[in-house]
User: What shape does this take?
Amino acid sequence: MAGLRVYDAASDQLVAPATLPSELTSGRLFSLLEDDEGNLWVRGDDLNDVALRQGGGYRWDGQMLNAVNTIHTVFGFLREEQIVWVLRANGMLRIDLSARKPLAPLPPPLVTSVTDLGVGETLHLAGLPQLPPTVRNLRLQFALPTGHRPEFNRYRSRLAGMDTDWSPWSTDSGRDYTNLHDGAYAFDVEGMDSFARVSRMPALTLTIAAPWWRTPMAYAGMLAGALLCLGLAALAGARWRQRALLARQRELEATVAARTLSLSERNQQLAEQSTQLQVQAERLRAVDALKTRFFTNVGHEFRTPLTLVLGPLDDVMRDSRIRLPERARELLELANRNAKRVLDLIVQLLDVNRLEHGQLPMQRERVELIAFLKRQRDDWQPLAERFGHQLDLELPDLTTLELDCDPLQLERALGNLVGNAAKYTPRGGRIRVALSCNADQVTLVVADNGQGISAQALPHVFDRFFQAQAGHVAQGTGIGLALVREIVEGHDGSIRVDSAPGQGSCFTLTLPRSVIDDAVVPMATAPAEPAEAAPAAGRELPVALVIDDHADLRLRLRRLLEPRFRVIEADDGPAGLAAARSELPDIMVCDVMMPGFDGVELAKRVRADADIAAVPLLLLTAKAGAEHAVTGLRAGADDYLSKPFDASELLARIDALLAVRRRLQRLAPLASTVAPANVVVSDEDKFRARLDAAIRAHVGDSQFGVEELAQALHADRSTLFRRIKELYGQSARDYLREARLKHAFELLSSQAGNVTEVAYAAGFESLSSFSRAFRQRFGVSPSAAYTGAERAAC
Assistant: This one.
C-alpha cells in the first residue's frame, strides 16, 4: 500500500484522507514534514514539492524545492526560528519561511489557434474577428504563458452568444463549437496554474458574416427587382389597354361608317343601342342594389358579434363585485377600445355607401351649443392628453347659444377634425377649438400647430378617399374630411381650410342659425316613470319575448332581462309571432334581420292583430342609419336600438316603453270623450270628419306628421295641402299643430292628467316647446289652464 493513510476507528481500517492531494495518497514517500502553518514538505517518487495549506485542502507550491533534485532528502524544522533544513547528499539547504515572497500575478491565457472544423483549416488570428459565412464549426485552442508544470494548468471558457454559463474547470486547452449562426460572439477564457493563481484574458470578439442573400444589398436588390417587375407589369397593362382602346376606336369608326349607309339602318341600330343601354342601366341599378345589400348585411354580421363582445366586456368592467388585477383590467380596456374601433370602422364603411347615394341622414333638433361644446371638450381631453397636446376651448361671452342641427352628426364632424389635429401634430402641440356667432350664423374653428398640409394637397383634402402624404405614413380611410364636408353642407353650411407646411392647419365651419318648427323638432325623450323594482317572492314576473336568430345574443338578452322578467325566446319571425299570440307578453324585443320574415314585417303583423296590438315592441338592428329606424317605427315599432347596444340603455328604453304604455292606459278612457262625432252632410263635411278622425286616432303619436296624415287619408301631399288651405285657410302643418293644442287644452280643462302627461298625450316630445306653443295659442301657460280648471271644479 503506497501513500499516506489515516486510521479510521469506526471502520477499523487505514483510509486515504480526502483533503490531501492525490500525489500523497497514491505514490511512495521518502520524507515528510509538517510546519506550523500546516504545509507539508514532501519527497517521494517523482515528487519533490511543498503542499501549501489552503482552506480545507492543499495546493502545490512548486518553487521552494526547485533546487533540491536528489532522491535522498531529509527535512528538519526549527519552529522558533521558522527555518526548514533540507539534508541532501551534497550538503544542507536552509529555507527561511519568514522571508518568503508572495507569488507574482499569473499572466492571462492566450488563444493559440482558431481552426475551421468544416475544412480543417487553421484561421489566421490577424484575420479575426471577421469570419466568412461558410464558417459554422470552430475549434479554439488556448494556453497559459508559463512553463512551470503546465500539466497542472486548468482552464474554463465560455462563448457569449452560444454558451449560457462557464464550462467546468478542466485541463483541456481547447473548445469545439458547431452549428454556429451568423452574428457576433465574444470568447472568454480563465486559466489556473499549479499555484491556484487565476487570470482571465480579454474577450476575443468573433463575427461570422451573413450569407449574401441576407445582406442589406441583397434585400435592396430584391426590392428593386420587385419594383421593376411591377413597373413592367404596369407598362404592359398600359400598352395592352392602349392597343385595346385603339382596336375599340377602329371598331367604332367602322361601326359609324356602316351606320351612315342607310338612315333606316342607322335608326334601327340606334334603337337597339338604346335598348342595350337600358338593359345595362338596369344591370347597373341591380349591381348597385346588390352592393347596398352587401354593405347592409356586412354591417349586420359584424354588429351582432360586436354586441356580444362589447356587452360582456362592459358588464365585467362595470361590476364592482368583480375584483380584477390591474393587468387584467388594462387588457380588458384594450379589448374594449379596439372593439369600439372596429365598430367605428363599420360605421365609416356604411357612411361611404350613404355618401355615394346621397343618403346621409340629418335629424335636426335644437341644441344649446355652449354646453354641447363643453361636453365635447371633456370627451376630447383624454385623446389630447394621450398625444401630449394642450386642448383649448374658446367660447363667446354668452350664457346660452341655440343652434338647430343634428347633434350626433355635428359631434362626428368636430370629433374628426380634433382627432386629425391630434394625430398629425407633434407631441406637445396645441389644439384650439373656438366658437363665435352673429345674428345670422355660427362659426366654429378647429386649429392646430402641427405639420400642416402642402399646397398641392390642399385643394383635394375634402375629396373622398384622398390621403395627403406629408412625410409620414398615411393613416385612416381617406373619407373623414369628405364626411365632414357632407355633414356641414347637410346643415346648409360651408367649410374651408387654411394651412401651410410646418405652420399647422385651421378648419373653419360656418353654419346658419335657422329656426325649425317646435311641433316637429325631435327633442329629448320624455322622462320615463321610475322603473318597477323586481317583484317580490311569490309575485308573477312580467313576460318579455326575445326574438332573434342568433343564439348567443338571445342568451345575452335573457341574462339582462331575467332578474325582472320571465323571458321566453323565439328564433325567427313566424315563431316569434306565434309566441306573442300564445303568451301575450308585456314587452317584445326583436331583431330586424331574421329568417322567415324580418322584424319590420313582424311589427306590421303585431299591430294588425287586435289581441297583441298594444304590446310594446323594441327593434334591435345592426342596420345603422335613421332611414332604417324610420322604416321600423312606421311599421309599428315603439322604439329602435342599434347594435352594439349598452345594457343600461336597453333596460332604460324598456322601462320607458312600459311607463308610456301604463300612462296611455290611464288616459285612454278620456281620449274617447274629447271630440264629438261630426254630422256628415256634404263632401266637405265628409272630408272634415275623416280628417278629424285620423288626427284623433294618432294625436298621441309624436311621429305622426303631414306625410303620415296624407297616407292615413289615402291622399297625396299636394291634395291634402290644397283641401286644408281651402277649408281652413291654414297649412296642413299648422292645422295639425292646432289640433294637438286643442286636444291638450281639453285634457287640461278636464284635469285628465298633469301638464307633463298631457304634453306627451298630445304628441309633443318636448315639454318646453309644448309650453311655449300653448302660451302663444291660448295666452296662458298650461299650468295656469290646469290650475284654473281645478279652481272651477272647486
Remarks:
- The longest helix spans residues 263-318.
- The CA atoms of residues 141 and 174 lie 4 Å apart.
